[in-house]
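Collaborator request, handled under Task 6.
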Amino acid sequence: MITNFDNTNSIISEWIREIRDTTIQVDRMRFRRNLERLGEIAGYEISKTLQYEEVLVSTPLGETNCKILKKQPVIVSIMRAGLPLYNGLLNVFDKADSSFIGAYRKHSRNDDSFEIYQQYLTSPELAGRPLIIADPMLATGASLNLAISTLVDYDLPSEIHVVTAIACSVGIELLIRHYPNIHIWTGAIDEELTAKGYIVPGLGDAGDLCFGNKRQS
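Structure tokens returned to the collaborator:
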């Protein structure tokens, strides 16, 4: 279940161009805002797939039936790069609960291998609720796979959505292999990874572009 916004003509294509373009992405505010806007559109599209129920509402002139979500989703930010996407999703699902996960790659000094370290996780109850995960880059899929496996160890959500700006087919295949019913929403799909697991052509390091270069350990 993959939605690739790049397959249809929409304004998202313009935002993806801007976050890829080295002459534009140096504007951090614009970069973050484009990710946020992508989160808003993805959130709206996800909202069409969720379950609703009718409630009776009193207006100043009478009563009418309106639809509301049966269950509010839980929105997860993979920190730090996922924060702008997360903000966009929260703009749509303004009553949602939130979860935060701190994860990072630690590359070997001797070769191109790396390990995923997950050092922080906080989450509300997930049982029976839609789970929406915001992470701008789906490369190898290793960090997202670890995050999801940790979350579902606590509770089983009703469904899992991943929102990303750029995905690689390698990472998509990994997630689908472990979670066949997962739904991935992405601005574009690239086919190539470097030896160190970075997406090509990709856009670079989304966290650094959002918030500044991190110190190398």
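The cover message to the collaborator said: "The chain has a mean pLDDT of 92. The radius of gyration is 18 Å. Please let us know whether this matches your experimental observations."
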